[in-house]
# Entry
Amino acid sequence: MLMEVAYGPEALHKLDYYPPPAEDNSRQQHALIVFVHGGAWRSEDKADHAELARTLRSLTGCAVAVPNYRLTTADCPIEHPSHADDVLRSLHFLTTWPGPQPQPPPSAIYVLGHSCSAHILASIYLASPFPHLTPSPRLIAITRGILLSEGIYDIDALLRSFPNYKQWFIAPAFGDHDAYPDVNVASYSLRPGADHIRWLIIHSKGDSLVDQLQSDTMFSHLSTLATQVPPGPRPMVQQNFDEIREEHNELLKGTVYPRIIADFVAQDISSFTDTPS
# Structure
């Protein structure tokens, strides 16, 4: 493992890197999983997910990176899209970083978002109204999958279900507004060149902090977008709303979530023969 790798100038611009478990020339050796933590834009740390990273590495044979990003706190009252700016910076860094031992950069990336980071990743990979969140052509080309669990997508709908969330974390992270239609990622279009990226929307039956309406809404939106692209060998968007039963964050410590991720990655790696360059 390589901890506290700097990807930018800020104190929280650090990531932890878990190299693949075996030295060989398999496709897994050239694939990278990036897990972006949740925490309502205001809490958590990459170190909280070290065990999950090790599990994903073991199950998939892929390298795993877990970045930190700046959080909205009293000492750092940043607002959206600053958190997403940091995550995009980390992803751009990982597309060219040679790793702890010089090696080619990854040829395939799978990005994992949980809770608020599902919104962060959707703000990057869909056509948000923030031009500076545009991924590089290289990042778009090598991103194979976006796997989002317990996500927040439509903030106005979230506040109708959980009104107390506004003062708790939405207003600090997005500003105190009457409504938030411009940051509803379940209304954004696909980015050019991103038709090949496959999405998996995951939701637990046991989640009491984010309702399934969020994931239903995002899955429905992505399914509509999928009708605009040529069909591929596998669906552009899939959902898994039935297998996981744990609470919002507890599922990350269980066995079902990492197995779902590993199955998706293994099936995708086996399905393609040409890697982007």
Summary: Helices lie at 50-60, 82-96, 116-125, 137-142, 155-161, 165-174, 212-226, 256-271.
